[in-house]
Amino acid sequence: MSKRNQLIVPAILIIAAIAVLPGCGAEVSGQADSTAVPIHVMKLGQPASAGLSGKVIPDQDIKIVSKVAGKVASVNVQEGSKVKQGDVLVQLETGDLNQQVKQAESSLLAAQAKLVDTKAGARSQEIQGLQSAVSAAQGAYQQATAAMEQAKAGLELATSTYNRLRNSYDSNSGVTQEDLDKGTLDYEKAKASSEQAQGAQKAAEAQLQGAEAKLQLAKIGPTDNTISALQADVDRLNAGLELANSGLNNATITAPIDGLIVKKSISIGELAQPGVQVLSLVNMDQVQVELSVSDSQITQVKAGIKVDVAIQNLPNQTFKGEIFFVSPVANANSNTFPVKVKVDNKDGLLFAGMVAEVKLDAAQESRLEIPKSAIIKKDQKEYLYTADDNTAHLVEVKTEEKNQDWSYVLPNDKLKANEQIVVNPTDKIAEGTKVKAE
Length: 438
Prior knowledge:
Blueprint: H1 3-20, H2 31-35, E1 37-43, E2 51-65, E3 70-75, E4 82-83, E5 88-92, H3 95-120, H4 124-170, H5 177-220, H6 224-250, E6 252-254, E7 259-264, E8 271-272, E9 277-294, E10 306-311, E11 314-326, E12 336-344, E13 355-359, H7 362-365, E14 368-371, E15 376-378, E16 381-388, E17 391-401, E18 406-410, E19 420-423, E20 435-437
Parallel strand pairs: 1-20
Antiparallel strand pairs: 1-19, 2-9, 2-13, 3-5, 3-8, 4-7, 5-6, 7-9, 9-12, 10-11, 10-13, 11-12, 14-18, 15-16, 16-17, 17-18
Helix pairs in contact: 3-6, 4-5
């Protein structure tokens, strides 16, 4: 080998050694690669952010509708009007409704008077009148009876005369056909008179019985069934009056709460329809912030927790709030949980639709999530391995159940966000073991 070649070979070896060193750490090249334990690692994420984003909505948002149909007579508010509870907002025409109330009142008064009179029973004058009617019916019955008896006697005489003439005529004893015909006619007249008298007597008897029954009922008084029927009629008419008054009252639309009119959907002369919105009223003295919280953060959120609320359009201002509702049921489409926060707005700085950020406290911010496959349980304690500079370090942790695959872990001085941890550690790994990520 020439002298020139003797100088070149060592130089090449030095360059190769330098090229290998950066991939091996501080150990001699080749030694770390042969002893390092292959591992799977993952990087810890940032702690669950306390900045939950949501929107401001009114604490009370009422859609005011008409309960009855009617033509609008007046609208006393405009968009932006501040109103107090009970203020008249819209007035419908009431002419027909007033007539319905008057008609219902008249019918009810008549039914009530009839019920009172029936309960009180017949007056003495009515009793006397009924007694007079009975006496008159008795006299008419007696006259009809006498007339019937007289007609009955006349029929008996006419029957006897007719029989005698008939027998004589049949025996040729000198009775002519003319005599027989006259006797027959007298008999028919007497029979008709008797039947007529009997009918008159029966009619007079029926009138007498009717008069006596009316007198008896007047003396006894009304039955329970009669009173019940009249009372039911009064109740029915009273319900009709209440319904008419309700319709009249509903023609006046008033403010159910203190607040601000934000939308007007009707004008004078238009026809209001039942159930159709005419105004929109909100109360912004207190507002709500609606949040959608992910399943990884929902366990941090509890009703009653005090929070700070920051508004995107109001920099350098923080509002105090309180969580008052945490839904136990996730939204079907987004798999997030509805959460609501109350915020005082006496100063009127917050408007519906503003974007808000709700900040939880620092203790809740500090929770990290790790897979359960990274946790080692030993001596009733929990550990995991970090991979720092190709070296495994055993770190004791405290965890809290999240679900069947993940746990929350509180960081300590040796465990922070963005740090690499070993997943599915094997028995080959111990404190200080050289490792390499695959």
